[in-house]
Amino acid sequence: MTNLSWSPDEKYVLIAELNRGQNDMSLNVYDAATGAYVRSILNEKNPNWVEPEHEAFFPNSKSNNFVWFSEKDGFQNLYYYSIDGKLIKQLTSNKFPTREILGSNPTGTEIYFTATGANPINMLAYKVDLKGKQTLITKEEGVHAVSVSTDGNWFFDEFSNHSTPSKSVLYDKNLKATTLLVSKNKYDGYVMGTAEIKTIKAADGTTDLYTRLIKPSNFDPTKKYPVLVYVYGGPHAQMITNSYLDGANLWMYWMAEQGYLVFTVDNRGSDNRGFAFESVIHGRLGVNEIDDQMKGVDYLKSLPYVDGNRLAVHGWSFGGFMTTSIMLRKPDVFKVGVAGGPVTDWKYYEVMYGERYMDTPAENQKGFDEASTLNYVKDLKGKLLLIHGTSDDVVVMQNNFSLIKKFVEAQKQVDFFAYPMHKHNVLGKDRVHLMTKVLNYVIDNNK
Predict the structure, then answer these.
(1) Which of 157, 271, 359, 392 is catalytic?
(2) Is 317 a catalytic residue?
(3) Which ranges of 99-192 does DSSP label H, i.e. alpha helix?
(4) Beta bridge partners of 110
(5) Is 31 a catalytic residue?
(6) In terms of Cα–Cα distance, which of 108, 72, 107 is closest to 90?
(7) Packing angle, helices 287-302 and 318-329, rounded to 10
(8) How far from each other are the two terminal CA atoms of the chain, in whole angstroms?
(9) Does residue 402 contact residue 321 with C-beta atoms inside 8 Å?
(10) Any residues with CB less than 8 A from the CB of 381 and at least 6 apart, and which?
(11) DSSP string for residues in 37-66
(12) What confidence tens digit (pLDDT) does each residue in 292-339 have?
């Protein structure tokens, strides 16, 4: 039971209810005074999964008509319903995902929302009226953070893109723009390399995947460079965006200055590309994702300035699962791997996330066995460092300990480092220690 909302007249409660398999969802209405079931407004089924991510949005405080998010046509779009279950209007029919509702005007006749637009590495702001007329609010490409005034007459927009560190713009209700502030580049005076955003084909041969390649400031195309591949690869995450630094972390630019190329590809299964793109992972976590990462490796090896014998890979959480999986299932590709907080067997992960993508072990034992890194320990060839926070309540330590035990049984040498009292992410001043350890391990072992 999820995404609870109250109707504006406070007579009803709306709740999205999913079955255990998360492939059958009903939006149900209950009497707020008695708790009695009133009706189901809508039902969605999908052989992969149904994932309600937003509660009902009521654009007008004097009406119980509401807006609902749904991916049923392949992309998350907005649908306008009455409380009695009548579909009044599909408000958007975009071939790109709607992400968040920002609000509505006081009369409830316009709804403001964010969406990627046609270029999936952007995040833009739009408005749509109750007849389905859609208008783009933001005028420049990039990643926008927009807030709406309470009277609906003003839009404050702060955004960045590949070439704009930060810009603040005020739009009036007619979308006339006034620039309030253009921020200076806070990295002026620092020696930094450059990032290139390109696309390659996925392992299916047709789907475009976005890539980011960071080069050092003194890049020499006649040299051969080692590469660090940074990977996440899982659902609800997008590593490459049209923001300043293109979604990269500063340590990636530091690593480039040490004579490395730093590469990332957002494989199928990652965010902001629609349901078909994301749901190819269902029942076989790691399979299509690894295949796409190998296409990234093929691309790297096609570049004349890449040393294909000196490749390293690093990731955290789902990226730790990907790093470990790649080191074990593609043992001849990477010389070094550093996996932080990795899921090593999906039976150890929490059920709502795990079963959405993998179903239960009883339903999909073959898929769980295929995805389990514990089944591939004998194939390890490269140097592997495993890292975990001792208080991790997201990916519990059992994941890493189970894998280490298998390595010991197989007489395989790996390295392990624990961060005492840290949860799933190592934050604060200790993060400097973490990234120093990760990058030094790569540099020391990728020679």
Answers:
(1) 392
(2) yes
(3) none
(4) 129
(5) no
(6) 72
(7) 70
(8) 52
(9) no
(10) 331, 332
(11) EEEEEEEEE-SS-----S--B-S-TT---E
(12) 999 999 999 999 999 999 999 999 999 999 999 999 999 999 999 999
- Is 24 catalytic? The answer is no
3-state SS string for 20-38: CCCCEEEEEEEECCCCCEE
Residue from 160, 317, 325, 372 carrying the catalytic annotation: 317
Q: Yes or no: say if 65 and 58 are a contact pair by the CB < 8 Å rule.
A: yes
Vertex 201, ends 195 and 202: CA angle to 5°?
A: 105
pTM beyond cutoff 0.90: yes
Whether 157 and 151 have beta carbons less than 8 Å apart is answered as no
On whether the CB atoms of residues 99 and 116 are closer than 8 A, the answer is yes
The catalytic position among 5, 168, 402, 424 is 424
The pair of structure tokens assigned to 140 is 């420049």
Q: Which two tokens stand for residue 102?
A: 């920002």
Helices of type H across 270-397: 275-279, 287-302, 318-329, 351-358, 365-371
Q: Which residues contact 265 (CB under 8 A, 6 or more apart)?
A: 200, 209, 210, 211, 212, 231, 292, 293, 295, 296, 299
How far apart, in whole angstroms, are the C-alpha atoms of residue 373 and residue 322? 10
Digit-coded pLDDT (tens) for 327-353: 999 999 999 999 999 999 999 999 999
